[in-house]
Design a protein that fits this description.
The chain is an alpha+beta fold. Helices cover 34% and strands 20% of the residues. It contains 14 helices and 13 strands. Strands 5-4-6-7-11-12-3-13 form an eight-stranded mixed beta sheet, with helices on both faces. A three-stranded antiparallel beta sheet has the order 8-9-10, with helices on one face.
């Protein structure tokens, strides 16, 4: 067996490695960008063809039309505020573990180790929290899931749709006590890109132990907003030296660094992500979880984030119903959920600038980011930043307090004129 599936279509789901009884397949990073692909040891391979026959790329699995859609947030305020969105994933995991089951999901031990882990205690569930904008390492986790299922344990497995497809292909049958939760995914960068970005950001910091450096990609803002607008960036916990040789734990914020900006621009995803068969309304799992963008309902508050729960099987619907006492939730039209989330309609588009990134990254990563993100940043300034500044200015000039202040304190007139100048500049208004 030389190849399992087309290289550009491979999702890195690792089902081939898990299914191989001869340990002839490993999942390894490929240069220069680090996307993982299977490597076959021809000395160990017996050419049975099982890996190719079970691969979800070669043999696509069935997808399910959503049965219902719910907006939901956790009833536990601390749980809600420590979750990336409405805390729905945390609630599902809590329910399964409380019933004596086990949960599998993505855990970040440090910025160099983001992988799927097995969780079987309430105390460890917090390890699953937080958005991880990188492809997790699956390892041999499918084998562990099968063992738990054979032992009769309830299992909740959360992952990207391609990881769910990998597990389903590996198991080759459904289990009544297995619940599959697929995440609405924009695309996945490699862990190599993340490692190198973090190490670039930390080059000026005297790190004591890089194995203890942890990265957050998304945080809720400290002050309530009219609508949910999380901060995106690299929020890095590190130990830095201070006077007297002591060490102090510090959280350094790198908002809008190259990695997170390139993620938003879609330039650093795996090649298969631009042609993802799971980026549509029909789903691979029992329940789909995402942010509920475009929510029009008012029963569930959305200022601190609100989750979309979209069951696609009867088993998934029963699981959501079982969480009623843990959630504030409201049924919403499926169309509302789909229309508010582009990844439930089509895959991320492949930017033309990706070719620039791929070309320059091996020689000069920072130049690759700079050149490939220039157009995206310019468009963001024009479409997002400028309108926000103009809106703030319009709110300010309509303030009675400001007008009274200008009359009483002449020096504020210069501030007012400066704002007027900025307003004119961002709107390309030329004075007559």
């Amino acid at each position: 067996m030389i190849t399992i599936c087309e290289k550009d279509n491979c999702t890195g789901c690792a089902v081939c490695m898990n299914i191989c009884a001869h340990n002839a397949i490993s999942i390894e990073e490929t240069m220069p960008l680090g996307y993982v692909l299977p490597r076959i040891d021809t000395n160990a391979c017996v050419d049975c063809g099982l890996c190719a026959n079970i691969c979800p790329v070669n043999h696509p699995l069935g997808l399910f039309e959503p049965l219902k859609a719910f907006s939901a947030i956790s009833r536990n305020y601390d749980d809600l505020m420590t979750s990336s969105s409405g805390g729905a994933s945390s609630v599902l995991a809590h329910l399964i573990v409380k019933r004596g089951g086990v949960v599998y999901g993505c855990v970040q031990r440090n910025y160099k180790d983001v992988a799927h882990r097995r969780i079987d205690s309430i105390e460890d569930l917090s390890k699953l929290k937080g958005s991880k904008y990188v492809q997790s390492n699956i390892g041999y986790i499918y084998c562990d899931v099968k063992k738990d299922l054979i032992d009769g344990r309830e299992v909740l497995f959360t992952g990207t749709p391609c990881q769910i497809a990998g597990l389903k292909a590996f198991l080759r049958k459904d289990y009544d006590h297995l619940y599959l939760v697929d995440l609405v995914c924009h695309g996945v960068p490699s862990q190599k890109l993340l490692r190198e970005d973090v190490e670039y950001l930390l080059k000026d910091y005297p790190i004591v132990d890089k194995n203890k450096v942890y990265v957050e990609f998304r945080r809720k803002k400290q002050h309530p907003q009219e609508r949910f607008e999380p901060d995106f960036g690299n929020f890095i916990s590190l130990n830095v030296s201070i006077r007297g040789g002591r060490r102090k734990k510090k959280k350094q914020k790198f908002l809008n660094d190259n990695y997170i900006t390139a993620f938003m621009a879609g330039t650093i995803f795996r090649e298969n992500c631009y042609n993802c068969p799971y980026a549509q309304r029909k789903r691979i799992g029992d329940v789909t979880i995402a942010d509920f963008w475009g929510l029009e309902g008012k029963s569930v508050p959305s200022t601190e984030g609100v989750s979309l729960l979209m069951p696609s099987t009867e088993k998934g619907l029963k699981l959501v119903d079982a969480c009623e006492s843990y959630l504030y939730y409201e049924e919403r039209p499926v169309e509302e959920a789909v229309n508010g989330n582009g990844q439930l309609q089509n895959p991320s588009s492949r930017p033309e600038e990706r070719e620039i990134f791929v070309k320059y990254y091996p020689r000069n990563p920072q130049k690759a980011y700079k050149l490939s993100l220039k157009k995206y940043k310019d468009d963001y300034q024009r479409k997002v930043v400028r309108p926000r500044i103009c809106k703030r200015y319009e709110q300010m000039i309509q303030s009675d307090f400001l007008l009274r202040t200008l009359d009483k304190v002449p020096r504020f007139r210069w501030f007012f004129l400066g704002c007027a100048y900025a307003y004119a500049k961002f709107n390309n208004i030329v004075p007559e």
